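Notes to self after the call with IL:
- keep both proteins in one doc
- input above output, always
- annotate only the second one for now

Protein 1:
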Amino acid sequence: MNKPLPIVAIVGQPNVGKSTLLNKIAGRPLAVTSDVAGTTRDRQYADTAWAGTQFTLVDTAGLAIDSKDELELSMGRQIDVALAEADAVILVVDGRLNRLSVEKITLQKFRKYDKPLLLCVNKLDSARSSEEKLTEFMSLGIKPIFGVSSISGRGIGDMLDYVAKTLSDSSSPRHGEEAGDEVDDTRINVSIVGKPNVGKSSIFNAIVKEERVVVSPVPGTTRTSIDSDMEIDGTGYTFIDTAGLKKKEHRQAQPDIYSGFQTFKSIRRSDICFFVVDAVEEITKQDQRVAQEIFALEKGVVI
């Protein structure tokens, strides 16, 4: 088995561009992005490399301060887990706003973790606006500070240079896998699929034995495909929790459309599907759509 890679957590308030940043660095659309604040709800992981250093990026939900909502509190716990396991933290802020948009309690939360912390001022699409905004955000007291555009990629290279150097200099026990190591292709990929609110995330959490994804009675809580590696009796498995496939609507919300795409992509890269249905409901067209995809791709299936 490969050694775990060092982890870099991408954190910040809602709608600052964290998921877009992860997708840009990873070079592929892993995290669902939209203009709707709060699209990301679970920890989303992506292995990547820069300057010969391999690491795992983790995207997190936007931090909602002083919320009493059960779903928001669960999302907050996911952020705490990401921060606790991270070797370095990228705090993302919206450069189109002013520094007062970053709440003090947000800064205090991220500073209390004794981890290397850098400030990423996102959405700076021109060099002219970048210098002025960086000077303004320096007053937050977080160094180093980088101005980037997660859409165009501007400034991301300089930020990753710092991240790679920080991880290379770190004595973290997780660090130790060098670029070029062979990827373990003997793993069995198992996706957990089905329509919303049938218990997929609860089953996923029970299998991996931790609160890895947000569980809520609100249908559609999971919006992205979440991976977790584990070993059972000497065999490596990757379990994939997927977004529930919703009934098609004439004006479907953008995040739910992309979630449907990711569900089908997860089925395609699976060896076996755990097809979850609700025992107290009759089979629906959504169930049939999932079943058709599984059988069309000739995947192993457990119902």
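Protein 2 (the one to annotate):
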Amino acid sequence: MGLSRSTRAVVLLSGGLDSYTAAAIAKAEHFSLYALTFDYGQRHARELESARAVARALGVERHLELRLDLRAIGGSSLTTDDAVPRDRDLESSGIPSTYVPARNTIFLSVALGWAEVLDARDIVIGVNALDYSGYPDCRPEFLAAFESLAAVATRAGVEGERVRVHAPLITLTKAEIIRRGLDLGLDYALTHSCYDPAPDGRPCGRCDSCVLRDKGFREAGPADPALLR
């Protein structure tokens, strides 16, 4: 979906390179950014530090960090003690155990509530439908369905104000995302992607997210700056 000129946008900001790039694209399109980050009990909580650094780099109007512990629900290797898959065949079918049940639905719902308070009509999310590990809530049809929900579930919607969910990375590969971010001058050393980092924060290099990130940087050309620190 393309971005249009507006005033305020709520941006889901995880601390990974995708959300950083999506937010930067929104900023370049003259949105005023209100960043929303979730501490949801994820084992890779190291990403919260990156989210704070990225928010500062972007110069967001406000960075709201919410605690929403999804460990009580479980169902994912990111919120339980189950092993995070490593060296997985990314061409295989099926949804991996790192899928967090309904995560993007939950996050977008909170973003929608904050957007209403801010009188914002735009939400930005960094999902993409190509290098996405098979998650069902990273697809265009999911985002379209959520926009339809917003139209009937909010005061703005029933009063005829459309809330749009922007996914500027939806059709891009990881390499294309990285190239777009580099064109915008982004410092990807600030970001964190690994699902199962070492205690000192070093990436494992073998989970789906690490593999996709490595593939993206190799195809884009430059070395991953996060590995050069």
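Annotation: The longest helix spans residues 103-118. Residues 1-5 have pLDDT under 50 and may be disordered.
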